[in-house]
């Protein structure tokens, strides 16, 4: 996992050296899930996209890493609070 900020946004990149995703799963039908007509699992990527400003899934070629890049735009006070929680070793 790589975290970086440019002062206006926080970028989170999660790198996966496994087989990765072949394609992004379809958007879930929340009504069907809520009524028990579909498996309640399988909403992770949908929720991630709903909670961040940008989400990008990059599937690497065979033998290379895949990754997801998430971007969250920050307000000044968010940056100050974030700085308080990060410690560098």
From TrEMBL:
Protein's UniProt name: Histidine kinase/HSP90-like ATPase domain-containing protein
Record Pfam families: HATPase_c_2
Compositionally skewed regions (Basic and acidic residues) per UniProt: 29-38
Xref: SUPFAM superfamilies: ATPase domain of HSP90 chaperone/DNA topoisomerase II/histidine kinase
Region named Disordered: 18-38
Species of the source: mine drainage metagenome
Listed InterPro entries: HATPase_C_sf, HATPase_dom
Histidine kinase/HSP90-like ATPase domain location: 3-57
Gene3D superfamilies linked: Histidine kinase-like ATPase, C-terminal domain
